[in-house]
Design a protein that fits this description.
Order of helices and strands: HHEHHEHEHHEHEH
Distance between the termini: 36 Å
Radius of gyration: 16 Å
Helix content: 40-55%
Number of strands: 5
Number of helices: 9
Structural class: alpha/beta
Length: 217
C-alpha cells in the first residue's frame, strides 16, 4: 500500500504525461531501440547526462566497457519517469542483456524539483520494470554541490538511504570516492560539482569493475 501511494505521489508531482520529452528526444530514443533490437550487448548503461557522457571517454570506454560488450543508453536530461517510458517503449524489446548498470535520480531532485520520496519511487519503478529481465547494479546518486552543507547533499543522502533498501539489485554507493577528506567535492573529479571529469570517470570504472564482473559471470 505504501509503495502504491508513493507511485501515485510521483505521478501527481510529474503530471499526467511525463514523457516523451520532445521530438529530438524521441528520435534519439528510436535510434537506441534500433540498436537494442540488434542485440549483442551483455551490459547496458542506463541513466542521465552523467551516464550519457561516457561517450566522451572513448579511450577509457574501449579499455573497460567495450570488452564487456556494453552499450550506453544514457540520455542527458532524463529523470526516472523518462527512462521508465523508454524501457516500456522498445528499449527492452531486443535480446536481453545479462546486466544493467543504473544511475539516475539527480535530475528528479534538480530541475525536476521532485521530493525525495517521489524520486525514490521512480527508481523503484525502474527496478520493478527490470526485475526478472536482467541483473541490476544500482548506483547511489552521486553527490553534487561543492560544500557538505549544500542542500542537495542531505537530499541525496536521504534518497540513497532509500535506494540501498531496494530488493533484487546489487547496490553500490560511489559517492565517498568523489569527496575530499573535508567533505567537499573534488573539482578535479567533478569540475562543475555535478558532472565528472576524465579522472572522475576512471574512479567510476575502477569501482564497478569487480561488481560488474560478478554480475556478468
Amino acid at each position: 500500500m505504501l509503495r502504491m501511494l508513493l507511485l501515485v505521489m510521483l505521478l501527481q508531482e510529474l503530471g499526467t504525461r511525463a514523457a516523451p520529452r520532445d521530438s529530438a528526444w524521441v528520435k534519439r530514443h528510436e535510434a537506441f531501440v534500433v540498436e537494442a533490437k540488434k542485440g549483442g550487448a551483455e551490459l547496458l548503461l542506463l541513466g542521465d547526462s552523467i551516464t550519457d557522457a561516457w561517450r566522451g571517454q572513448k579511450a577509457l570506454w574501449d579499455e573497460r566497457f567495450a570488452p564487456l560488450k556494453a552499450a550506453n543508453f544514457g540520455m542527458s536530461g532524463d529523470c526516472t519517469q523518462h527512462l521508465l517510458w523508454r524501457l516500456r517503449n522498445g528499449l527492452l524489446d531486443g535480446p536481453r542483456p545479462k546486466a544493467v548498470m543504473l544511475l539516475i535520480g539527480t535530475n528528479n531532485l534538480g530541475w525536476g524539483q521532485q521530493s525525495v520520496e517521489s524520486a525514490a519511487a521512480g527508481v523503484e519503478a525502474l527496478v520493478d520494470e527490470l526485475r526478472g529481465k536482467t541483473r541490476i547494479l544500482l548506483l547511489g546518486v552521486f553527490p553534487r554541490g561543492e560544500k557538505p552543507d549544500d542542500p542537495f547533499r542531505a537530499r541525496i543522502q536521504d534518497l540513497n538511504g532509500r535506494l540501498a533498501k531496494l530488493k533484487h539489485v546489487s547496490y553500490l554507493d560511489l559517492g565517498p570516492l568523489f569527496l575530499s577528506p573535508d567533505g567537499t567535492l573534488s573539482k578535479e573529479l567533478m569540475p562543475d560539482f555535478l558532472h565528472l571529469s576524465e579522472k572522475g570517470y576512471r574512479v567510476w570504472a575502477d569501482a564497478v569493475k569487480q561488481p560488474l564482473d560478478d554480475l556478468l559471470r
